[in-house]
Give the backbone structure.
Amino acid sequence: MNESNTSSVLVTGASGRTGREILRELNDTSFHVRALTRSATNRESLREAGVDEVVIGDLLEQSDARRAVENCDAILFAAGSSLSTGLLRPSRVVDGDGVLNLVEAAVREDVGTFVFQSSIGVGDSRLGMPLWARLIVLRWTVREKERAERALQDSGLEYVVIRPGWLTDDPATNDLLITEGGGRMTGSVPRADVASLMVTALSTPDVLNRTYEVVARDTAEQFNPSRQTTVEWNHNAPSRT
Ligand SMILES: NC(=O)c1ccc[n+]([C@@H]2O[C@H](COP(=O)([O-])OP(=O)(O)OC[C@H]3O[C@@H](n4cnc5c(N)ncnc54)[C@H](OP(=O)(O)O)[C@@H]3O)[C@@H](O)[C@H]2O)c1
């Protein structure tokens, strides 16, 4: 664990589209931000985006996962494999083994909170993903993310699982429908909203050890009101002084 007064957060998938939004959110906070990327060519742009420390590594390598999480207090996991994974079906993907490696490393390091970006369609939210996506295009990814969610939920770490609907690059709506524990909700959500929720989770104790589905309210379909969450998300992360 980090022994300074500043909490240190690892962002995986920091060079990706949700990852970039997370970095934007973290810019206004006092967190020491470490970003993981597989490619050294991302180092400069990550620095420009406000990252304090860049670690080059691949989550499919256990030693890289351990190095990435050293002295970290929290993890924001926004990595994921590309759509072609569903067709190529590689034996190991970041959505499964990559998460498992990081969970194992986080337990060893005694990390405080692990926020995992999963997907509607995973586990008991499966009815929120169209059948063609669940059974054909994303079948492989969904199965791996299920394995990852279970490993995290069973790890003993404090976790938050956030399952967004289809991701868009639209500006944040700040008007989300958040449900807990499956339900028949489907819709889309800007990455900016998901990033905001993930960072907010770090300062909202009530959401710990819970699994949420999230879509932008104006896109929500098949909503089951009984599962709507009542938690107040605390949007006051520790700020830069
Ligand atoms: N697309 C959708 O509609 C949708 C819906 C729900 C959920 N999701 C999930 O949301 C997450 C974020 O999606 P996104 O589209 O914002 O991300 P993205 O732009 O595709 O970026 C993915 C990131 O994952 C990192 N990555 C991939 N393999 C890695 C590995 N082996 N080790 C370390 N990092 C690795 C890449 O980083 P480097 O290349 O820098 O290493 C990349 O920055 C994914 O898990 C995705 O499955 C997507």
